[in-house]
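Milestone M4 deliverable, item 7.
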Amino acid sequence: MKTSRFLLLTLLGALPAVAAQETPHKIVARAEVNFFEPKKFTDVKDSSMGDYERTTYLDQIRDHLLEQAKYYVPENHTLVVTFTDIDMAGDFEPWRGPRFDDIRIVKDIYPPRLVLTFQLRDGEGHVVKEGRRELRDLAFLMKITMAFRDDPVRHEKGLIDDWLRAEFPRVRSK
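Output delivered:
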């Protein structure tokens, strides 16, 4: 009992020291991702009768782009990306039977496609670069990727990575 009281008092005494430590500096996001009318996207669903709201696919795409932006967007700049259409790799083939309603069949004839607009803005908000891109990879199944095979948006993430590499020079880490 005395040991537990001693530990409790020791921990309570250490709290002010922990609170006094500097908090790490806030990481400023270098990108902003928007989805324009996702209900009208060609295919961002997890079953033939599903819809985009049931999945986390858009969240995964957004998170991936936000994570990768730190490698391609210079400090004090912001990349604003708006997706206007997404057609995920593969498609549903319900004619195969009722058990195939929620199985995405990935073949060469169903390549991933992302349509986006972007603006790269400097620290004052001036547009440095902007454009509209329709990303498609007809050879997506021939690529060797480091992504996990069970990642449902690995092909779309690959398109984003390829676009960032082609569009922006890699930022040097300090």
